[in-house]
Design a protein that fits this description.
alpha+beta, elongated
């Protein structure tokens, strides 16, 4: 009699089938076989880092066009700081949630959803241009016109200002649009930084993690660089690329095409985000650490409970290494990020670079040194596997060197611009008016610097120099004291040119700043490159400390808490702190329609002291807490996964022995149950 048996799927087989689906690339039922070859941590690393490069480029692009936005819409640096904190407000609201539940979510798809929001925020940033158009009001503002040149001259009568309501009322709406765009951006990138790196760390062996983190940090270095380079490229074109404003990018009235880069970044982020969403919830088991493979299956699918949230917070708060590490990073982010964001403005003010050149040098300087530093640091950690004590000690030395580099940079400045015929007001700003130009009807609406005949004295505009008219163009070869590399304009019969003993004489002036003869710019760039190289060698070690000082189950949650703390106490305060410091060094504010706009001219010495001094102070406080981490670092165990490998070997042997014993028991049981057939002996 034949019996037909139907196999009943066990719980284990069902689980394995569901896990096999989670290991496959694709979305929904679209999971073709040819796509599964891409379910690899190396492929994920490339796509993940590409998205990170573009996301990082958004931030630095915003930094690169910041001075242009301030000029275009009349922002103060403090208002720019408020716009910058928008993303951190949103990040603070959801970092805890993403970190707590993110460990069990489909991480690639959550990250992809967030990056779609980042792409949308890029497109929102372009809206002000399409509403208000180019900044033609900066070219013609109730000024005397001679030929095809628009300048403000001494006309001997008070000018009646004709306020354009569209221009004067654009400041608040534009600031609101940019604030909302950055607020949305904060929601988008939170998942990327909170669960993106843990996804990679969970799917590779610990001994290989340093090289992956090194490659990740090295690739993401290109993000800030691309952002600055893109802003440099876009700002070379006028805001309306098809319009000729009649001035060059070195002119303070030049407004570059700040909006174009947002379009480019938004489209690129959207394309690579689609690729990121195709990755599975978990990569195949062959790539992952042994410890994760041997973990209880039922524990993997269990979602965190809300009632366990306070207990998880308590575990993190009782971790002294994590607490000190977070406090240290918080102070250092304040110092480094504040310096980083306002560095282009510093270059423009200190070394008289154009907005395009400042973005170029901010991005291009140090890219090779940072790349080499990150790769070298990751390689050395992978090869020598230094103890946590040595690693944290090296981090402290690197941070001390960074403070030293900032200290040296204080002495690499240029002399401040000499503007005779001015006086200092009670608020430490410059009073541009004197008895000579008081009747010229000059305004601070248009900044058109001119250089006196001595090649040292500069004036705010031809009007403040008392110039009634102008002649044609002269070559810069004739007047080498002018900083402009192109042709300059000569203004004749200027009656308020200050001579010796504070007297006035009639003379000629030439458009552009006077050359300061400063040669410190290259020294500053070299110092910047050296500092970036040294500090980059510790980046991989810093990441490892963050991941290894908490349990594996708390990794994503710790990063979520970490992100919220940084947002509240670092990313929100530093734009406000450095924005206020920068505004306090302003000498001449734009004034239009009885309202103050952006700063035209800064006190270069005060700006240099405040910027570097504040960064040195904040980083030094962070170093104090890193010293505590150094003394506690011996508590860090299983730093490179040695225990996992030993345990995996023991568990494999134990599992083999257990399987052998089970087979013996089954064989014995079957032997007892089967009937015994007695055979007759052969006769």
């Amino acid at each position: 009699m034949e019996h037909n048996f139907t196999a009943v799927p066990s719980t284990d087989s069902e689980y394995e089938e569901s896990k096999e689906i989670e290991y496959k690339c694709g979305i929904g039922k679209f999971k073709p076989k040819w796509m599964q070859r891409f379910a690899d941590p190396k492929v994920y690393l490339v796509i993940f880092c590409t998205v990170g490069v573009l996301e990082g480029a958004y931030f630095t692009y915003f930094v690169g066009v910041l001075t242009t936005l301030e000029k275009r819409f009349g922002f103060e640096s403090q208002l720019s700081g408020v716009i910058f904190i928008a993303d951190n407000i949103s990040a603070t609201l959801i970092s805890f949630i993403v970190g707590y539940y993110g460990q069990k979510w489909h991480k690639p798809r959550v990250i992809a959803f967030g990056m779609v929001m980042v792409s949308l925020s890029c497109f929102i940033c372009t809206i002000p241009y399409f509403i208000y158009g180019p900044a033609l009001h900066l070219l013609v503002r109730e000024i005397h016109v001679t030929g095809d040149k628009n300048q403000e001259f001494c006309e001997g009568e008070e000018k009646i200002e004709n306020c354009d309501n569209t221009v004067s009322s654009s400041k608040v709406p534009v600031a609101t649009i940019l604030f909302l765009a950055n607020f949305l951006w904060g929601f988008g990138y939170t998942a990327y930084y909170t669960i993106g790196a843990p996804y990679l760390d969970d799917n590779v062996k610990k001994k290989n993690a340093p090289m992956y983190f090194s490659a990740m940090a090295a690739l993401r270095i290109f993000g800030p660089t691309i952002g600055f380079l893109l802003s440099s490229f876009c700002l070379k074109y006028y805001e309306d690329p098809f319009y000729d404003p009649g001035i060059d990018p070195h002119n303070p009235r030049w407004v570059g095409a700040w909006w174009m880069g947002f379009f480019i970044l938004g489209a690129a982020i959207f394309v690579f985000t689609i690729l990121l969403a195709l990755f599975p919830k978990e990569l195949p088991e062959r790539f992952r650490s042994e410890k994760k493979e041997l973990k209880d299956e039922g524990e993997k699918d269990e979602m965190p409970k809300l009632k366990d949230f306070p207990q998880a917070i308590k575990r993190l708060m009782k971790n002294p290494i994590l607490v000190c590490h977070v406090i240290s990073i918080t102070f250092q982010v304040n110092g480094f990020a504040g310096y980083f964001v306002f560095m282009p403005k510093f270059m423009e003010s200190q070394y008289q670079q154009s907005a395009s050149e400042a973005s170029l040098f901010s991005g291009a300087t140090g890219i090779l040194s940072m790349l080499l530093g990150v790769l070298l640091g990751g390689f050395l950690i992978k090869k020598f596997k230094p103890r946590p004590r040595y690693l944290t000690g090296y981090m402290v030395l690197v941070e001390i060197f960074s403070v030293f580099g900032l200290f040296v940079s204080i002495f690499l400045g240029c002399d401040r611009i000499l503007m005779p015929g001015t006086s200092v007001n009670e608020d430490q700003t410059l009073n541009l008016y004197n008895e000579c130009n008081a009747g010229c009807g000059c305004t601070r609406r248009v900044f058109e610097p001119v250089c006196g005949p001595d090649g040292v004295s500069s004036f705010f505009s031809p009007c403040f120099a008392g110039c009634p008219n102008t002649t044609g163009m002269i070559s810069s070869i004739i007047q080498p004291t002018i900083t402009s590399a192109s042709n300059a304009t000569i203004f004749t019969d200027c009656k308020c040119v200050t001579a010796g003993n504070s007297t006035y004489e009639v003379s000629n002036v030439i458009s552009g700043f006077c050359s300061t003869g400063c040669t410190m710019f290259m020294a500053y760039i070299i110092m910047l490159c050296v500092s970036k190289f040294v500090s980059s060698t510790a980046r991989v070690g810093n990441t490892l400390i963050t991941f290894r000082c908490v349990d594996a189950k708390d990794k994503s949650f710790a990063l979520g808490v970490f992100g919220s703390v940084l947002a509240m106490f670092a990313f929100i305060p530093y734009p406000l702190i450095y924005g206020a410091l920068t505004d306090s060094t302003c000498l001449v504010w734009e004034e239009s329609c009885s309202k103050t706009g952006n700063c035209w001219l800064y006190d270069s010495d005060k700006f240099r002291y405040y910027l570097h001094g504040m960064s040195m102070l904040l980083i030094s406080i962070g170093i104090c807490f890193d010293i505590i981490v150094f003394f506690l670092s011996d508590r860090l165990t299983n730093f490179y996964g040695e225990d996992d490998e030993d345990k995996a070997s023991e568990d494999r042997i134990a599992r083999w022995i257990k399987d052998e014993e089970e087979e013996d028991i089954i064989f014995t049981k079957r032997s007892k149950e089967e009937p015994v057939v007695e055979m007759d002996p052969i006769m």
